[in-house]
Amino acid sequence: KSKEAGRNTWHFFDPGMESAVKERAALEDDLRLALQEQQFVLHFQAQVVGERLTGAEVLVRWQHPQRGMVPPGEFIPLAEDTGLILPLGEWVLDAACRQLARWATQPELAHLTLAVNVSAHQFGQVDFVDQVLAVLKNTGANPRFLKLELTESLLVDNVQDIIGKMFALKARGVGFALDDFGTGYSSLSYLKRLPLDQLKIDQSFVRDILVDPNDAAIARTIVALAESLGLGVIAEGVETETQREFLAKSGCHAFQGYLYSKPVPLDKFEELMTAEAVA
Ligand code: C2E
Ligand code: MG
Ligand code: MG
Ligand code: MG
After folding, report:
1. Which of 35, 59, 125, 150 is the best mutation target for the ligand 1 pocket, counting ligand atoms within 8 Å of the beta carbon and taking the most?
2. ipTM surpassing 0.95, yes or no?
C-alpha cells in the first residue's frame, strides 16, 4: 500500500510542474543577484495636466543579462513573495529621489514631480517612514515633488497604522496617490480618513470608456468622488485623443498613457521635456 502511495506521490510531480518550480527558483536566484549587481533601471512615463507635462511615474525595469528587459509584471509578484521587494523598493525610491535632486538644479526641469509605486509589504515595514525620510535627507530631494502611489490592497491590514504613516510623511510634504482605483476591495469610508492627494482611474476603466457605458459611468463617478472629497484625479492608460476628450468632458484633466508617451529611459524623457519647451 505504501508503495502505491509512494508511486502516486511520484506521479503527482509531473515534469511540467517540476520545471515551473525550477524556473521560479532560478528567477529568484537571478533576482537576488540583480539587486547586488544593480541590474535595475528606472523608466519614466509622462504625466500631463491640461497640456502641460508636469512629471512622471517611475516604473522599474530589470535588464536581465540573458533574458533582456523583464517587465515588472513578471518579477514584482516574485519580489513580493520572497521579500526582495523591500530592498528593491528602497533602491527605486533612492534612485527616484536622486533624480529629483538632479532636476532641482536644472531650471527647466526643476518643476517635475515623480510618482513612485510602493507595495503594501513595503509600506507595512515598521520603519518605512524613517526610511523615506532618510532617503530624502541623503539625496537632498524636495519631498513636495515626491508622490507615493499606494494601492487599495494596503487597506486590508492595520488601517490605523497606515493612516499614521501617511500623516507622518504628509507632514513633511510627501504626496499620495491611490493607484488602480476602483479595482480593489477598499471601503469608500476609508477614503475620507486617508490623507490622499489624488485618485488614479485604473486603465481598465479607460480602455473601453467610449464603447462601454459602465466603464464611462465608473470613470465619471470616480471623478465626481475625487471632486467632492477635494482630491485630484488622474486617468491612466490614456491611449487615444478621443479617450482624452471624453475624460476631459467628464472633468478629469490629468492624464498618463501611450497617447503622450510610453515609459521611457531618462534621456528620452528629458527629450520630451525639451521638445515641449521648444514647442
Ligand atoms: P501601475 O503602477 O498601475 O503602472 C501602470 C502600468 O500601465 C505600467 O506598466 C505602464 O507601462 C502601463 N501603461 C501606461 N500607459 C499605458 C497605456 O496607455 N496603455 C497600456 N496598455 N498600458 C499602459 P508596467 O510598467 O509594466 O508596470 C506594471 C505594474 O508593476 C505597475 O502598475 C506597478 O503596479 C508595478 N510596478 C512598476 N514599477 C514598480 C516599482 O518600482 N515598485 C512596485 N512596488 N511596483 C512597481
Ligand atoms: Mg502606479
Ligand atoms: Mg496604476
Ligand atoms: Mg495598473
Report:
1. 59
2. yes
